[in-house]
Amino acid sequence: MCHALKLAQAAGDAGEVPVGAVVVDASGNLIAEGENRKERDKDPTAHAEILALRSAAQTLQNWHLNQCTLYVTLEPCPMCAGAIVQARLGTLVYAVDDTKTGAIRTVTNIPDSAASNHRLRVVGGILESACRQHLQAWFATRRRQKK
Questions:
Q1: Kindly report the CA angle at 135 between 129 and 137, in degrees rounded to 5?
Q2: Residues at the annotated binding site?
Q3: Where are the transmembrane segments (predicted)?
Q4: Binding-site residue positions for Zn(2+)
Q5: Would you give per-residue pLDDT tens digits along the chain (147 residues)?
Q6: What is the pTM assigned to this prediction?
Q7: I need a labelling partner for 4 at 20 to 30 A (CA). Which of 75, 93, 116, 132 fits?
């Protein structure tokens, strides 16, 4: 999660919503990473989780990521939650609940819904304080800049 937070900081420095994600394999080896790139790539799907999952699948040459763990600094949105289910991810670890668009546990629960064909282990609240503080500081700065 520390590496994901560093990626989030880099995304924020580049003007993106500061979210970072990493994928590790069953042995704990880092195999993929991603940071939000929607603004830079002009791509609405360029969320940190999507980019990390794509990279992991390419690294493993397999879209089944059931032996992998995704660490992400913010609870995934509905799009990312759907991609996580489609990837058959083994474990999701996230830091901060997203009270607006969280689709894992906070607003809705896509992985455990009747629409999901895959169940995964979910752990929330890891490095929550540091990730929350970073997100809040970034948004506060953005609001000040818009005034």
A1: 100
A2: 47, 77, 80
A3: none
A4: 47, 77, 80
A5: 999 999 999 999 999 999 999 999 999 999 999 999 999 999 999 999 999 999 999 999 999 999 999 999 999 999 999 999 999 999 999 999 999 999 999 999 999 999 899 999 999 999 999 999 999 999 999 898 887
A6: 0.95
A7: 116
